[in-house]
TrEMBL record:
One of its GO terms (cellular component) is membrane. GO terms for biological process: vesicle-mediated transport. InterPro entries: DUF1759, SNARE. This is Uncharacterized protein.
Amino acid sequence: MTNADEIKALKAKRANVRRKLTRFINFVNQEENKNKRDEISVRLQGIYSLLQEFEDYHTQIHVFDETQATEDELNNFEDDYYQIISEAKNAINSSTDSSNGSAVSANTLHTYLKALENIKRPTDQWDDLLIHMIAAKFDQHTTVAWESTLSSEIPNMESMFQFLTQRCQMWEAFEANHSFKKRFSNITFFTVLAVFIIQHTAHLEK
């Protein structure tokens, strides 16, 4: 094999390593994958070895090709490698924080109930108060999602229920990847609050 053939083969192997990293970058950056914490974590485990592989091929190529372009290939790969690992870890941590932040205690719900009972709000005027109470508990991602559903019309509880239902379904799908015990001990805020509103709206209408 000539030097030219060897360099070509090494560059092809190096390019394959680059493609693996690019696929991971594209996966992490796709909006629909932002909450796939477990899958991102699993995929990340296979990414750690790529830098060493790339450097090994780079070292062999550098014997025959000492141009700046070769050095730039390594520098660019390192930049992308460290950046996507940081972004992937942030996505994993953000998803965990969002899930944990959605939990609410029974005491908090009891406080909401007492407040509604004390002010004796008629049911046909509850929408503004309940929507404010619910939206105040949203994390940043949920707030952005809720605001994206708003129009020029004042939102009502029907639209809030539709939004909560969609979020509940999303979190239930996410929680399905966790253990039975965790699914039922960490009830999401949206599920509990939806049940609370349904039950106590009926109670106060009597």
